[in-house]
Design goal:
This protein has 407 residues and is α+β, with helices and mostly antiparallel strands. The protein is built from 12 helices and 22 strands. It has a 5-stranded parallel sheet, covered by helices on one side. A 5-stranded antiparallel sheet has the order 11-18-17-13-14. Strands 6-7-8 form a 3-stranded antiparallel sheet, covered by helices on one side. The site of flavin-adenine dinucleotide (FAD) has 36 residues, from helix 1, helix 6 and helix 12.
Length: 407
């Protein structure tokens, strides 16, 4: 019996390994468009979260803005702890941090992809690269699969794991078999503004800040960063992921409110500022940040109030003090557009998971056709939730195809 997997991302490769291990008689081939599979894992920059640190079923709705109900079952079937055990058994050490579970220091991304490919080779999975699936049709025994160029294939079962943003072909094949595909919406994104306070020229991270979209009644904590390409940080990325569709329908034109001191005080920090005024009356406000705010951000907040540069704490009127407190606890930015967040490039949209049997990831519309990973309309907030969705759906699809083969 033959299983063909379209796409050698985390979902496709892991499903192939699970299937081959669980059914040694099953012939498993993965077809990958790129010459080098799993290349993004080795890309420069921040390491990617491999999975999430644990998943309380009650937090699922928050962790997966789209597909939370479906993920409820998938996470029970293949929990993050089991994925971590699997990675450890393959020699992939990890470390849990605030933003998810990451490869252990020293395990370069390229090596990580290599380790997964080695695990596939040991399981007897054949990976063919530089070969793009173009078309699929049902045959008497399963599927005929044609490439953009090169040989065609026959398979008893087909797993589509062509990803989200890059996986147009997978979505087209799903449509051919009668599935609907929800439109692609980037998520999460950086929010862009022309506001001078955000133009700092360097990256500024404020881990204790929170972000609010007052129009949408959405709020998130976890830090805000001012980046050359837009406003980001965990709070903004989370809120942008949770409200991806509403933000897209507003064409990203909205107000973003940032509380730079959310972790330190509830409400406005007026009392703290009054105490500072008494203790540091002779210091120049612009040069003396309150509450450990980064000096460059502080200067921008003070400049936004149009205070004369040499204003000292002692000469601030109560109204000015109140206005400064407002800048700290409720900086309002007029957002005009978005930029892609390259550190966590995820697509909301894809095949609705309700169109699949959750116990096998098999299409409810066409027998033998399975799907996994980001080609489904499931997306998570930053923190390894997207990768876990790929692993969990792949495990279900892989073990189910193996069980079908054994039968
Ligand atoms: C730069 C970057 C950083 C990220 N960081 C994180 C993170 O830190 N934490 C997290 O949880 N998520 C992160 N994500 C998201 C996460 O990588 C995805 O959710 C996950 O990779 C989805 O896995 P997948 O296998 O479904 O799809 P993909 O990883 O997109 O893999 C799909 C594969 O299919 C191939 N393919 C597409 N079309 C065809 C075709 N016609 N024929 C053959 N092959 C085809 C593609 O080349 C690709 O290799 C990141 C994504 C990116 C791009």
């Amino acid at each position: 019996m033959k299983l063909l997997v379209a796409g050698c991302g985390p979902a496709g490769l892991f499903a192939a390994i699970c299937a081959a291990r669980a059914a040694p008689g099953l012939e498993v081939t993965v077809l990958e468009r790129d010459q080098i599979p799993m290349r993004w894992m080795g890309a420069a920059g921040k390491p990617r979260a491999l999975t999430c640190a644990g998943l309380d079923p009650n937090l699922l709705a928050r962790a997966y803005p789209h597909g939370s109900e479906f993920m409820h079952g998938a996470v029970q079937a293949w929990p993050p702890a089991q994925m971590l055990d699997w990675l450890r058994d393959e020699g992939i050490e990890t470390r849990a941090e605030a933003g998810g579970v990451f490869p252990a220091p020293g395990l370069a991304g390229q090596r990580l992809g290599q380790k997964l490919l080695e695990a596939a080779a040991r399981a007897g999975v054949r990976v063919q690269t530089g070969i793009a699936v173009a078309e699929v049709a049902a045959s008497t025994n399963g599927f005929n699969v044609w490439m953009k160029s090169g040989p065609s294939f026959e398979a008893d079962r087909l797993l589509l794991a062509t990803g989200g943003r890059a996986g147009q072909t997978g979505w087209n094949i799903a449509k051919y078999f009668g599935h609907s595909v929800h439109p692609f919406v980037p998520s999460p994104v950086l929010l862009q503004t022309r506001d001078a306070r955000a133009q700092t020229g360097v990256e500024i991270d404020v881990p204790g800040a929170s972000a609010t979209l007052p129009q949408l009644g959405a709020e998130a904590t976890g830090g805000v960063s001012l980046l050359p390409s837009g406003i980001g940080g965990n709070a903004v990325l989370e809120i942008a992921a949770r409200r991806a569709h509403e933000l897209a329908s507003l064409d990203y034109k909205c107000i973003l409110e940032v509380n730079w001191v959310a972790d330190a005080v509830t409400g406005q920090p007026t009392r703290t500022l009054r105490q500072m005024q008494q203790a540091r009356a002779r210091k120049i406000v612009a040069e003396d940040p309150a509450m450990d705010l980064p000096p460059k951000l502080w200067l921008k907040l003070v400049q936004a109030m149009k205070l004369p540069e040499d204003t000292r704490w002692g000469s601030l009127t109560p109204a000015r003090l109140q206005s400064l407190a407002g800048q700290m606890a409720a900086s309002r930015f007029k957002i005009e557009s978005r930029a892609m967040n390259k550190a966590g490039w995820v697509a909301s949209g894809g095949v609705p998971p309700e169109e699949l049997d959750p116990s096998s990831m098999e299409s409810r519309l066409h027998k033998g056709l399975h799907m996994a990973g980001e080609m489904l309309d499931v997306d998570g907030i930053p923190g390894g939730y997207n990768m876990h969705a790929a692993w969990a759906t792949a495990w279900i699809a892989g073990t189910a195809t193996a069980a079908a083969c054994r039968e």
